[in-house]
Amino acid sequence: MKKILLFICLAFSMASFNSCGGSDTKVDDANLKKAQELEKQAQEKLDEANRLKEEQLAAEEEMIQREKTVERAKLERQFPDYTEVVIVTQRTYFHSNPSDESTTKKFLVNGDRTVILKTRNGYGYAEFYNPAADKVTAGWLDLHDLEAIDAPGC
C-alpha cells in the first residue's frame, strides 16, 4: 500500500518537474501520459487489494458463523427437552426470543433451578416459578449459563 502511494507521488513529481522546465510539449505530454498510466495501474492494484481484503473478511465472518452454528448444535444436544438445569453463572437474563438482541430485565441467579422445555439457537426455553413472589417467569436462557442436573433418559 505504501509502495503504491510512493509510486503515485513519484509519478506526479516527475510530471510536475518536467513541466516546469523549458522542455518540449511533446515530452511533457508523454510524461503526463506515463504518470496517468502509472496512477491508473496503482489505483487498479489498490482496488484489487481492497477487493481481496473484503473477500478475506467475508470468508472469516462465514467461518465464524459456521463455528457458532456447530457450537450451538453441540450445546443443544447437552440439553434435551425437559432437562432440569441449574444456573452456574452469577446471573443469567431471560430473552424474549432465542437471540442475543432480545435480552429482558428479568434474570435468574447462581443456584436457581428450572427445567428447559425446548432448545433453539443456543438458548433454552424455561418457565421459572418463584414461590416467594408466587410468580412464573418464562423466556429463553443462554445455554452457556446452565448446567444439566439430570437429562431425561439418563
Brief write-up:
47% of the residues lie in helices and 30% in strands. By secondary structure, it is an alpha+beta fold. It folds into two domains: 2-75; 78-150, SH3 Domains (SH3 type barrels).
Separation, N- and C-terminal Cα atoms:
60 Å
The average pLDDT score comes to: 86
N-to-C SSE string, H for helix and E for strand: HHEEEEEEE
How many domains, in number, for the residues?
2
Strand order of the largest sheet: 6-5-4-1-7
Portion in helices: 40-55%
> Quick one: biggest sheet?
5 strands, antiparallel
Tertiary shape:
rod-shaped
How many runs of DSSP E, i.e. beta strands?
7
Number of helices: 2
Give an overview in words:
The chain is α+β, with helices and mostly antiparallel strands and 154 residues long. The chain has 2 domains: 74 residues; 73 residues, SH3 type barrels, CATH 2.30.30. It has 2 helices and 7 strands. It has a 5-stranded antiparallel beta sheet with strand order 6-5-4-1-7, with no helix packed on it. A two-stranded antiparallel ribbon has the order 2-3. A hairpin with a 4-residue loop joins strand 5 and strand 6. Helix 1 runs antiparallel to helix 2. The longest helix is centred in the N-terminal third of the chain and has 53 residues. It starts with a helix and ends with a strand. 15% of the residues are buried. The model has no long low-confidence stretch (mean pLDDT 86).
